Amino acid sequence: MRRAAVAALLPCLLVALPLRCAGGPGQTSLKSPQDIQVYVVNTNFTLRWNYTGNDTNVTFSAEYRWTFLSYRFEDFGAGETEWKELLGCQNVTGTECDFSSAITEYYDTHHVRVRAERTGEVSPWSNVFEMIPYFIAQIGPPGIELQSTNGIIKIKVSPPEGNQVRKMWIAHLRFKYNLVIWENSSNAEFRSQSISPTDIIDGLAPDTTYCLKVQATLPLESQEGLFSPIQCVKTTCKVNDLLCATNVSVLALNMKFHLHWSNQYKHHVSYNVQYLIGYLKELHDDYSVKWLNVPDCENITNTQCDFSSVITTGFYYLRVQAMSEYNKSCLSKEVKVDPLVTNEIGPPGVTVDASDVLLHIQISPPGGSECEVMRDHYDLSYRILYWKNSSNNEGEIKMKEIKQTIGTVADLTPSTLYCVKVQAFSEVYNKSSNFSKEECIKTPGESSLHLPAPKDVMVYSYNFRSSLRWSPVEVDGGLVLYTVHFKTGAFSQWDEMNCTRIARTECHFPWSLKQRRWTVVLRVRAELGRVTSDWVKTDPFVAERNTTIGPPKLNSVTARSDSLLISVTPPFASEAGDFLQYHVSYWENATTTTKKETRTSNTLFKIGDLKEMTLYCFRIQVELMTHSHLHLLGLQSVPECHTTTISEATRAGYIILVFLLVLLFVAVGLSLLWRHHKTIKYWFQPPLEIPSHFEEYLKDPNMPVLEVLDNYAEDDPHDSLSVVLCGEGSQACGSSLDGQGHSHSISGDNEVT
After folding, report:
1. Kind of pairing, strands 579-587 and 615-625?
2. What is the pLDDT of residue 391?
3. Cβ-proximal residues to 331 (8 Å cutoff; 6+ apart), any chain
4. Residue 623 shares a structural domain with residue 706
5. Sign of the torsion angle spanned by Cα atoms 587, 593, 594, 599
6. Where are the alpha helices (DSSP H) in 50-204?
7. What is the pLDDT of residue 303?
8. Residue 184 CA to chain centroid, in angstroms?
9. How many domains is the chain built from?
10. Which of 55, 302, 500, 520 has the fewest C-beta atoms lying within 10 Å of its C-beta?
11. What is the pTM of this model?
12. Confidence class of residue 350 from pLDDT cuts 50, 70 and 90?
C-alpha cells in the first residue's frame, strides 16, 4: 500500500506547477483543442481550433517554435528554438486568435500548439500544427480605383500589400490581374479578362451600371488570390469623334509589320503613330508620358504605317494620334502586338534539281536567311509534298518532314516528271505557312556513265568536333559535287546531314550527331550533273572512343621561389559523368633527362618543391575518364619553360653579403689612404713654376741676381721659393740681393706653401 501511494504521488512531485495531480481526487476534466488550423492572407495570420468540452470559464493559450538555418561554420545546419508563448493567442476566450505580429520568418518551418486553461488546471497540448507560412499563404485582394469617362471605365490596380512595410509577396511585378465584370442586372453575364495595373475597360453599353472585382495571381506558382470587394460604376455616353482613327489593325508577314486604320474625317487630317514598350504597362507607374513616335510615321496623311523598325522581341502597344488643321487631336484605341504571335509565316522558296535516283530540294526560309528572329525563335520545320505529275490526278501525293533547308527524295522512277511544294511550320507557336509554288522536274533516264568514288574517306575528330573528309574526285568537264548521308546504331535508315551537293571535301557533323556515345556510320558519293558515283562508307565511329583529345589551354604561369602556379582550361566542355585528370611532367632545365610527374584534377594547380632561380620546363596531357569507364589520353602540350624566382631569405642574404663587402672595401681603402697619404699627396701636387713675367726678368744675363740665386740653390738643397720685391724704379735691386730689396723665403722639407 505504501509503495502504491508513493507511485501515485511521484507525478505530482515532478510537475513544477500548482495544479491538481493527475490520478488524484482533483483530476482535470479539460479536453485538448482539436482541428488546429492556420489561415494566412498576405502577412495576416489567424489560428483557429475546435473545442468539444462543456466547461465554463475556459480560456485558450498557444505556443510556437520555429526551425531556422544557421550558416555559421561552427554550427552550420538547422536549429530549432524552444517553445514560446504565441503573442496574440494568450488567455483567449474564443476559438480563434490573430498572431500576425509574432511571425516574421515566412520561409521557415513553424510549429503551433494550443491548450485549454481554467483556474488551477490545464488540458494536454493539442496536436502540433506544422507550417511554412509562404506555402500556405493566400494572396490578398488588390486595391482598385475606377473612373468612368467617355463610355469606358479607367481602372488602376494597386498590388496586395502595396502600402505595407512587411510583405509576404516581395516581387509585386510578377503579379498578373484578372478582372470579372458584369452588368448590374438580374440576367447579368460575367465577362473575364486580363488587365494591366493601369488599363481601360471598353466595349461597354452607355449609361449602364457595371460591377466588377479584381484578383491578383502568380501564374508561375499557380497561385490565385482573393478577389477585391465588388465595386460598381455607371458608364457615360460615348462621344463619337469623327477625327479619331478607327478599325486599327496590324498585318504582319515574315516579321514585316504594318499598321492600318480607317479615316472617317472629311477634312484635312494628319497622323502620328505611337508605340509603347509592353512591359511599361506592367509597372505600377504612369506610362502616359512614355509613348514614342514610330520613325517615318510622323505627320503622315495616309492610313498605314510600317513599324517594323521598332519591333524586336517582347510585346508592344500601338495607337494612332489624329490631328486636324485646327490643332485638335484624338487618340485611337490601342492595339497590342506580340510579334511572334501576331506575325504570319510566309511560304518558303524552293529550288529543285534531280539526279539519277534523287530529288535535291533547296529551301529558302521565309523572310530570307537574314531574318534572325524567325530563324532563332520559330524553330522552323518543313513539310515537303511530292508526287508524280501524271494524268491520273497528280498521282499519289507523298509527304516528308525535315528540319534542314536541304532535303532529298529517293527511290524515284527514271524519266518521270516529279512536282514538289513545301510548307514551313512552327510547332512551338502552332503556326504554318501556305505552301510554296509548285516546282516540277523530270528525272533523267538510265545512264551508262560512271563517276569514280571518293577516296581516303575518314572521320576526323578533335576534341569531339568531328567531320568527314575525303580526297577530291578529279574529272574533266565539270564541277564534281558531293553528298553525305549518315545513320546511327539505333536508327538504320540513311539520312541527310546538311551536306548535299557540296563542292568542298569536308562535311562537319550537325548538332544532332553531337552525342559522344552514339555509333555513327557515314557514306559519301560524288555527283557530276546527273551522274553519281558509288557510295563509300566509313567504319562505325563513336566519338567517346575515337576522338583525339588535344592539350589543355595554358592560361597563366606564376613563378615563385619554390613552385610554379599553373592555370589551364580544358580542351573541351565536359559532360555529366566525365572526369578530367591532368598529367604534368616537368624537369629542371632543357638539357636534363630526369623528369618528374604529377597528376591533378584541378584547373589551377602547383608544381612544388622546386629550386629557386632555376629554369624548369613542363608539359601537360589530359586524360578523360567517362562514366562508361573509358580512358582517353590526350596529346601533350608543347614544353613551357619558366624560371623560379629568388626567395626572400636568399635575397636578404645577398643584400647582407653585398653590404659587408662594401664595408670591407671602404675600410681597406681608408687604411691605404692613411698609410700612403704623403706619397699620394706628392703624386697629386702640381709642379712649382715661376710666373712667366718673373722668369723673363730673372733670365736677363745682365742681371747679377741670377748668380746669387744659383749659389743659394746649391747651399740650400731644400725646396724653396724666394720672392724678391723691388720698388718701382729702384736701383738697389740691380746691385745686390741683400741690399735694399726685400726678400721673403719660405722653405721646408719638400713642402711648399
Report:
1. antiparallel
2. 60
3. 244, 319, 320, 321, 322
4. no
5. positive
6. 133-136
7. 93
8. 52
9. 8
10. 302
11. 0.54
12. very high
